[in-house]
Design goal:
The structure holds two protein chains of two kinds. The longest helix of chain A is centred in the middle third of the chain and has 23 residues. The N and C termini of chain A lie far apart (44 Å). Chain A is built from twelve helices and two strands. Chain A is globular and about 55 Å long. In chain A, strands 1-2 form a two-stranded antiparallel ribbon. By secondary structure, chain A is an all-alpha fold. Chain B has two domains: 47 residues, no CATH class; 134 residues, Phosphorylase Kinase, domain 1 (2-Layer Sandwich), CATH 3.30.200.100. Chain B has eight helices and seven strands, in the order ααααααβαββββββα. In chain B, strand 3 and strand 4 form a beta hairpin. The longest helix of chain B is centred in the middle third of the chain and has 34 residues. The chains are: A mainly alpha, B alpha+beta. Chains A and B meet through helix 2, helix 3, helix 4, helix 8 and helix 11 of A and helix 1, helix 3 and helix 4 of B.
Chain lengths: 211, 250
Amino acid sequence: MTGRILPFAPLLAARPAESRPVLGGFGRVRRPTVAADAAPLDPREAEQFRRLILPLMDGAYNFARFLCRDASVAEDLVQDAFLRAFRGFRGFRGGEPRAWLFAIVRSSYATWAQRRDEVHPDPEAALQATPSDDPSPEAALVRQSEAETLRAAIMALPEPFRETLVLREFEELSYREIAAITAAPIGTVMSRLARARAMLRVALPLEDLRP
Amino acid sequence: MSACPDKEALLHGLLDGELDAANAQACEAHLKTCAGCAQAFGELQALSARLATPGVAFRAPPELRRRIEGAIAAEARPPRRRLWAAAPWALSAGFAALAASMAVVSIETQTLTLADQLVSSHVRSTLASHLVDVQTSDRHVVKPWFNGKIDFAPPVLELADAGYPLVGGRLDYLDNRTVAALVYRRNRHVINVFIWPSQPGLTSWPGPTGRGGYSVAHWRSRGLEFWAVSDIDAGDLQNFRKTFEARAPA
């Protein structure tokens, strides 16, 4: 099960999980919300994790996929996030489990993106290095189906707008929860969301927006 | 035509259910009288509806799900003693002995993983209201139910007179294969018996008898592997094993 080699494993493994700084909004450096706990979870805790957190995998994958814009990187990010979530499950103090988990997914993404940018300091090169989804045979067949068009329009949004929109439209998280996940004030969340929707309105032909 | 500049934020708030009752009412009243805002709000609603269409949000690939569940099962395992540290004699006994001891370690590791999978599967079956696929105490119903679903015929025994009523049967997935699970009860406890064909060449390792409060018993008969898992104590589970073995067709 653990034999698969992650394509960006060196990026994540470069620093121990506890000491990895995570870039929050506005360049603030924030510690990850998970603290690695030395003692393994007892079976009751592990079962609680399976019940509360594992069912959130679709949402976590969707979030990671829209953040990094690459299918296989998204898988690795989600796997990394779930392992960190499992190890730090005692740090979960109730509340909305998605908000807790997604903050970890975002932190996994931030780590990956930071290392990627260190490897490619040149923005032009970073752009080249950003993996892009290869169209699957099915995707080629239904060339730019409606869903594909919508996905592509979201993927084209700048990152802060993209992540805010995804958390609101797909996960229906509250402004407050989105603010906590993205480490931004609520006012910023609101303006990013309005801006993201305005950009989508421009990017998508008007007839595409009519139900 | 576009929304009133001072109302734009309110429209998003209304759409997202973030307005308090008073503001929501005021905003809805405004929509009735302002065509620009009404159109803008309609577009926001249409965009949300479009994004909610199936196929827009990504779903986690099943392979990823399996990988994460496996990784978590491995994490949940208590740290293991380093066997080679406890066996310094292996160093002095030469290369052949070392190689032999490593083979033992690898078989043991594999079996430990399996025992953990068995316990997890047992716990899942009792929690997820997926105890049985076919619920009946009649072995003549359970046995044919497995036909065509698996490529071997597990012995289905009625043990109610010995204090282990049959609850039913289930298909489960363990160690990369589909296995048969028979479910028995002992008083208020559940006993899962997982059955699959033995693999030639692998020597049997008796396996641990306890795992986080669960008892595990293993035996082998007529080319099949049997693993019983329950939260009854290890001695009781061994009695169950003896009863099962004694009743199994020879």
